[in-house]
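in:
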């Protein structure tokens, strides 16, 4: 048995080396697949049958070598160019002299090879499609290498025959190839599924029933791999998907988003209905922490097509509210605030990203009630930033893996909602909620949960609302929101003075925070000025709106802070953080 196994392995390696040598020869001489077929035919060898037989090999070396050979020999649409090397090979195959061959032009050879390549590909579609059974078998055995190479071959053949498959000109075996690609697209390893998904997304026009087949697969692939320890979720090890969290996010943002957008373009109503139903299901009262990952994926799929959904709104198209019913249903479901959200920062971040991505819809089409729900969800997330995800909480480990925190997404969503519809948020109740979120942002900043850019987002939104208040309330509200900045500037300046006198080593740690407060003060003054200009412009158009006051609130604030600002400029302007903020 050992001798037979050794001989089999040796034979597989020999076949693999031969295929790689052929691949290198084809790459060097630009030899095409039809030309290889002609050469083999002269030796009474059926090259396509040989390929089909080789695909059944249990050796990963053989299947990989075959994948690389076909990737070199199969030219995709628009890629075909007849080179001098290929013309030379054609003359050798035809066994004619140079003089007799001059009557054949590269264009002639191109037309001949296009037809021959179509025949070759038609045979390959059938042969490769039969590998769908073998794919399932190898996947069950955990042979990811063979699965990946079978997927590479199927993807290459599929890419080269996209137009023919869509037009139905290659019906024989096409269903087998599609089934193989679907199985590959559902494979848990990203390096395998991504190859298939790229091709599948190009085949959406193959029939009206293909989108309902492909979309569930894409929705499932959008779920971030996770594990549950009891009721505590955490990101799964790379063994489950073959990649780490960052690579999976890259797969989602590139391969998956493009495929989802094509699904939406093909059948937008089915797409939105499917995602909406998923959100409603995952926000039910019986939903568990495990479901939070499915909700995150459903919201990701909705955010992936937000630009397409919002595009008619920006063009003032009458069909801009075509998905109003689905988005209203999503908003109603999210208003329940599923109890598992605080335990999953990924789901919380995706929720706020969804609110920000659909900010145009909420402020231009949605009902006031729906806009209120979006506002309360984003602000409640900001209020969580003061205490949530402490180092003792298991979810904090998940938060450390994330490039963008849920609080950053909430700050951005809040800015979008407030700046696009500031008048809606001028009631006393909403002003109070904003005041609470603004104070919490300082606590969150001390915890490292909010960056200066996030605090600037919140500040810009609040300034838009304050500028839209009645003239009699603007100055009071403006100065009320400025109180934390004033207090923090004075406190940090005193700490800097103390450190400069007694603990010079600590001064370097104080300067960045002092610079941040200066930057925030500058943002507040600029944003309020811009917001006032917008209000006054609208007032000139609509005489029913009272013209707002000038920028006296900002002038009064700067006058109050002038001694502190002068002191900072005199003593700390050489620090790079301070000089950038003052500049």
């Amino acid at each position: 048995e050992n001798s037979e196994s050794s001989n089999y392995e040796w034979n597989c390696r020999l076949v693999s080396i031969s295929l790689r040598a052929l691949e290198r020869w084809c790459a060097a001489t630009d030899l095409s697949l039809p030309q290889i077929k002609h050469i083999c035919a002269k030796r009474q060898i059926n090259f396509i049958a040989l390929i089909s037989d080789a695909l059944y090999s249990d050796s990963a070396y053989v299947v990989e070598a075959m994948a690389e050979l076909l990737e070199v020999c199969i030219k995709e649409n628009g890629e075909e160019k007849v080179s001098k090397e290929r013309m030379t090979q054609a003359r050798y195959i035809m066994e004619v002299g140079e003089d007799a061959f001059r009557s054949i032009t590269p264009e002639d050879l191109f037309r001949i090879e296009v037809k021959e390549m179509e025949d070759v590909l038609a045979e390959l579609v059938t042969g490769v499609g039969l590998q769908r059974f073998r794919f399932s078998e190898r996947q069950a055995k955990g042979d990811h290498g063979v699965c990946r190479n079978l997927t590479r071959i199927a993807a290459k053949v599929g890419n080269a025959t996209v137009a023919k498959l869509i037009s139905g000109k290659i019906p024989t075996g096409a269903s087998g190839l599609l089934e193989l690609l679907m199985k590959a697209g559902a494979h848990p390893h990203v390096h395998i599924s991504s190859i298939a998904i790229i091709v599948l997304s190009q085949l959406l026009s193959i029939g009206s029933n293909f989108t309902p087949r492909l979309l569930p697969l894409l929705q499932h692939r959008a779920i971030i791999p996770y594990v549950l320890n009891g009721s505590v979720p955490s990101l799964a090890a790379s063994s489950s998907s073959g990649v780490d969290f960052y690579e999976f996010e890259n797969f989602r943002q590139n391969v998956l988003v493009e495929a989802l957008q094509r699904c939406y373009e093909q059948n937008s109503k089915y797409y939105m209905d499917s995602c909406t139903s998923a959100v409603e299901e995952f926000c039910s009262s019986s939903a568990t922490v495990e479901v939070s990952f499915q909700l995150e994926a459903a919201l990701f799929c909705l955010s992936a097509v937000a630009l397409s959904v919002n595009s008619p709104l920006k063009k003032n198209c009458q069909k801009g509210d075509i998905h109003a019913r689905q988005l209203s249903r999503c908003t109603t479901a999210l208003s329940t605030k599923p109890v598992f959200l605080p335990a999953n920062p990924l789901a919380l971040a995706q929720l706020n990203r969804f609110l920000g991505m659909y900010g145009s819809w909420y402020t231009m089409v949605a009902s006031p009630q729906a806009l209120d729900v979006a506002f309360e969800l984003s602000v409640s997330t900001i209020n969580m930033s003061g205490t949530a995800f402490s180092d003792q909480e298991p979810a904090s480990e998940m938060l450390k893996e994330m490039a963008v925190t849920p609080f950053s997404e909430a700050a951005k969503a809040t800015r979008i909602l407030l700046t696009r519809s500031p008048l809606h948020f001028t009631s006393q109740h909403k002003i109070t909620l904003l005041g609470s979120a603004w104070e919490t942002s300082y606590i969150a900043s001390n915890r490292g949960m909010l960056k200066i850019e996030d605090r600037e987002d919140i500040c810009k939104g609040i300034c838009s609302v304050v500028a839209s208040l009645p003239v009699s309330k603007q100055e009071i509200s403006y100065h009320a929101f400025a109180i934390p900045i004033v207090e923090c500037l004075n406190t940090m300046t005193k700490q800097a003075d103390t450190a400069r006198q007694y603990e010079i080593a600590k001064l370097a740690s104080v300067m960045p925070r002092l610079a941040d407060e200066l930057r925030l003060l500058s943002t507040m003054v600029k944003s309020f000025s811009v917001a006032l200009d917008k209000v006054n412009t609208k007032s000139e158009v609509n005489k029913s709106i009272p013209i707002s006051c000038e920028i006296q609130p900002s002038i009064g604030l700067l006058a109050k802070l002038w001694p502190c600002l002068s002191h900072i400029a005199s003593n700390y302007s050489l620090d790079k953080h301070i000089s950038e903020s003052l500049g």
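note: Strands lie at 226-229, 232-235.
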